Amino acid sequence: MQISRPYLMFLGDVPDTLAAKTAYGIVDWRRDWCLGQLRLPGCKADLGLPDITVEEAAAQGAKTMIVGIVNAGGVLNEAWVPSILKALECGMDVASGLHIRLGSDPRIAAAAAEHGRQLFDVRQSDQRFATGKGVKRTGLRLLTVGTDCSVGKKYTALALEREMTARGLDAEFKATGQTGVFISGRGVAIDAVVADFISGAVEWISPDAAPDHWDLVEGQGSLFHPSFAGVTLGLLHGAQPDAFVVCHEPTRTNMRGVRHPLPTIAEVIDLTVRCGRLTNPAIRPVGIAVNTQALAEDEAKTYLAKVAAEHDLPATDPIRFGVGPIVDRLEAEFPRARAAS
Fold first, then answer.
1. 246 half-sphere exposure, CB direction, 13 A CA radius
2. Is the pLDDT of residue 45 over 80?
3. Which of 88, 159, 254, 327 is 20 to 30 A from 243 (CA-CA)?
4. 140-340: which CATH architecture?
5. At what angle do helices 324-333 and 153-166 cross, to 10 degrees?
6. Is the backbone peptide bond immediately before 6 cis, with ω within 30 degrees of 0?
């Protein structure tokens, strides 16, 4: 899958920023690939990019319109179809992270064929996966896990990759969601894989590696989330992580989209270790990544110090303060990786 850039980021009429997290992720990590944003009336998200029309984007050289939207069920909203058709008409490809294939709409399929353009469904894969085998693989793996969905698991893994490679460690981000695939250009959207093959798909994206190589596997969902725990568990078993980082957003009380209360960080650590031991008995926590965006800086620092003391683990906000303390812990816990640098 080769998605041409630069991009026009399509936000549609999303009701909040979390509903556009795919677009935000791409802009946060690949801003230089993005020419502008297209928003429909009622859109409540803003990427900080110039607002441009499809025609303006095409004139500026945009190659692909990215449908950067996440919604319940990954459905294609009827209100978005005219913009998608206009992009195809203006000579752009269209890429989407929705569950619904773009080409399942006959109007979009016909327009793509008529104008000779490509449709990319990042959540769909033609790769066939085996069931997971649970056999220990060479190399080292870290998985980001969460107290909820949309708490920063992808950002934490990407921040770890940046910091670890800057220190000379052999580390690579492994995408398991549509935004991560857009950012890295590779990976598998795990939540679109048939349940029996989730752990096998993770084994496929993180195969045997050199003894000191780190695969930083992007987490999905939460073991405590009634909607997504099955995906999370399959990912945990397939990743066989040697280490994991717990991701958390401190202002939430209920998990996103349901009425269930948020688990504690301690509960997540305990259940992740108990479940993870099935495929890696040596699994251990190495840090806590907290999204402190809603807290003032002094309040955030106080909260992080409290969390670190409670769990005897480094705690940081990967975007606000960096992941240096977590990488320090990794280098101390895994001397083979430190020697490789």
1. 31
2. yes
3. 254
4. 3-Layer(aba) Sandwich (3.40)
5. 70
6. yes
